[in-house]
Design a protein that fits this description.
Helices cover about 35% and strands about 15% of the residues. It has a five-stranded parallel β-sheet, sandwiched between helices. Strands 7-6-8 form a three-stranded parallel β-sheet, sandwiched between helices.
Length: about 300
């Protein structure tokens, strides 16, 4: 199904709202901003097609007030609402209310939000799968999943512990298995991993660098280690590859992102932050989001 969006209400504030606004400008989509009294002078408001005051700076009276947000979207002629991050972005009831109002909610559908964010709903799904409280209904044994790790570093172990603690809340036992990197790759190639922890760092500035991880023909031993397949996603990926950078290509990318968010083949955990130290005699060093091929630009100044 193709949805045409002409004007979007951004139901957020600060840098998150500014980023969504920049994307709308790139795609040629009009956007409407909302703001509380505390954000009345936010810079992105001046570029908005319209800006709607929400009043009280308390979030519950402004950015978390679903009725005000939906009314603002309708009053300003919006087709869709983008919740950004936080606030109402994980509120399934809000997503349903947006749809009932005849608007498009830019994000996962309500059922997906409930499944991922609601512990009670997750437990209900476990019962449906035959594992009430994480136990096999036939044998009474706890459901155990092996999480394959490609390193024994402290940050990898800590990430595994956090994931295990989340799964424990719905009765699932996650047991980490530490491998060296070549061993992990072999297990993935042989499709022997139940779950695995993998990082990905962009090495060229295009969304394709990440979207390739979900392209069906890239399945193991390629970059699609999860062996994810979605015919609509693959068709859009191949279509985007034939177009130069521009609004149409970015619109295809947005549709692909929506499919991945809907199917949720991965659990997205966190983004790491990197720090660099250098000597003052190392010149032409610039912090950069892409980790490879930078050393050739460095210049060493002799003492």
């Amino acid at each position: 199904m193709t949805i045409s969006i002409r004007r979007v209400l951004i139901a957020n504030r600060g840098e998150i709202a500014a980023r969504v606004a920049r994307t709308c400008r790139r795609l040629g989509i009009e956007f409407v901003a909302v703001y509380s009294d505390a954000d009345a002078h936010a810079p992105y408001l001046s570029d908005a097609t319209a800006a709607v005051a929400l009043g009280n700076p308390l979030a519950v009276e402004s950015y978390l007030n679903a009725g005000k947000i939906i009314a603002a979207a309708i009053d300003t002629g919006c087709d869709a609402i983008h919740p950004g991050y936080g606030f109402l972005s994980e509120n399934a009831g809000f997503a349903r209310d947006v749809a009932r109002a005849g608007l498009t909610f830019i994000g996962p559908n309500p059922d997906t939000i409930e499944s991922l964010g609601d512990k009670a709903r997750a437990k209900a799904l476990m019962i449906q799968a035959g594992y009430p409280d994480g136990r096999d209904s036939r044998t009474g044994r706890r459901l155990e999943l092996m999480l394959e790790l490609g390193s024994g570093s402290s940050d990898t172990r800590e990430t595994a512990e956090v994931l295990a603690s989340f799964m424990e809340r719905i009765g699932i036992v996650v047991r980490p298995s530490v491998n060296n990197w070549p061993t992990l790759l072999k297990k993935l190639e042989r499709k022997e991993a139940q779950m695995f922890l993998l990082n990905w760092v962009a090495d060229y500035p295009d969304p394709e660098n990440f979207l390739q991880l979900f392209y069906g023909p890239n399945e193991t031993p390629g970059a699609n280690r999860a062996n994810y397949h979605n015919a609509d996603f693959d068709r859009l990926y191949e279509q985007a590859a034939r177009y130069p950078d521009g609004g149409y290509r970015r619109a295809l990318y947005a549709r692909m992102e929506s499919i991945v968010m809907q199917d949720c083949p991965w659990l997205f955990l966190h983004h790491s932050m990197s720090f660099s130290l250098r000597q003052p005699w190392v010149k032409n060093f610039k912090p950069h989001d892409f980790p490879y091929g930078m050393a050739k630009y460095y210049r060493v100044e002799r003492p």
